[in-house]
Specification:
The chain is of the alpha+beta class. It contains eight helices and five strands. A five-stranded antiparallel β-sheet has the order 2-1-5-4-3, sandwiched between helices. The longest helix has 22 residues. It is globular and about 40 Å long.
Amino acid sequence: MNVSLLPLPTAETGAGLDRAVARLRELESGVASPHGYCDLGEDAGVVEELLLRAGAGELASLAAFGGALLGDDGAGTACTLLSVDEVARVDGFFTAVGIDHVTDRIADVLTATVRGGVPSGYADDVAEMVGELRGLFESAGRDGLCVVYVHEG
């Protein structure tokens, strides 16, 4: 399953799944946004495990997969949502522990989750993705935005 995240104002989340997917497509096509988006791809589970090992507890699942169901098209695409308060909690975790505390565990997590050996450069890609995720939560938290997750596949 491919997971992508994007910050949205609370009022815009009321438009549901169709609006969230349309906004993600705009961002993917290069439309500028002060907050951007983060594509975890199929690595949301790896990110969740990194956050768990860093002590995030329940926030690990929220940060990697989202929270409440925003919508489901019944054909392979669903959206979940983190409220402004949940975004602030995830941002607070990243701020409290620092990005290095999360990424220091990459080698152990990848060794435990990737079958057949870790591809060259994969650990660096995951570290970059975690940095982007941290930046998205920092930006969304600062501006009082929700974070919407688009799950495809």
